[in-house]
Amino acid sequence: MIRELELRLERVKGDLDRSVIDELESELEHRKAWIAPVHRIPVELLSMIFVEAIFIDWRLLFVIGAVCRFWRQSLLGTPQAWSFMLLGLMRDVSCIPSILSRSAPYPINISILSKADTYLVSLLETHVERVRCIITPPETFKITRQSFLHLTTLVLRSSSGAISTRNTRLLLDGRRFPQLRRLHCGFVFDSVQGLIWHKNNLPPIEELGLCTSRQHVATHVCQILAGQLRVLYLYFQQPYIASGDEPTKIEFPILTSLTIRYMRHRGQPQTQLFHGHTPMLYSYTQSAESLENNLHQDTGTVQRLTYLGVIDFRPFPRVRIVISEANDIVHLVDTLEKEPHVLPDLERVVCERISGIRARLTAFNQSYGRNIRVLREKPTVGLAAPLYTKWNPNAF
Question: Which superkingdom, per the lineage (predicted)?
Fold first, then answer.
């Protein structure tokens, strides 16, 4: 067919109007697209590629579907790809029923911005057995009698507020949440009286984000989950330990990433939250001002350090990457110039504004034979948890 069109075009080029020639050339290009290599890929393999791409970024579904008719048809026949959509972050909610239909029977992701999103709230109640990821204000979340069999990620977005249940303890009930691996719960545990949990029947939580103004809340929750946590975000607001009380010792055998944000009133004495032992810790983030000591002491294995405010660099002998804002990176450079042997493994410094810092570190490298590079990048310092709209909700 294509060869015939080419011969026909060559024969009649001198005799036809330009419009007819353009029409034949357009049809020829259209026919050539039929034999493009991408059309030789089996539909099953193409679906697998789509799933992997949309797993990384669910918004790619719209890009892939607009490439060509063949890709769009393949995508429509791949329900797993549609299951990665983050319902609630889409501008047009009228398309949600078709997405639910196309994604069946796979688990789904729901994001609720406020309790005014009544349609999404109702979806949360009617599709309990299919939900994989929930991002919602605490007051719209209800723990029903049904178990959340596929739920792996639960984010209660607001920093304050209680969930819509009489028993907040059910959040740590493995029978209700048998697959829950990522929990960011704001201040909801501050409303719990007594704080009696047992290590039996816990969800398999590996990542925890916890905000509290009650020091013993964080201590108790961390104690019962310490053996399974790999990532921990803690936001302490004006924590207080009564005079004479000793911080609790907690062992975190597999924790690799720790973020602590510490807020206190001026004049309030610094308190040690708890003594954590973290033999596997790789990444440490600290956000606090006017500290006498670092918030976490067992940092000998840390290789990636992010901080806001003043920090003591001496407990970080293996750090290779330091990330902070420009004003606080100046504190790092001052420390290096005064104590050149601090942070002997440091390779990279990351901050947004690097003009004066780069010149000083270049001079330091020349003086002491070091090779510390400066990268310009906006750091996400001071956050107690990630920006949920940029999360990959399918990571677990």
Answer: Eukaryota
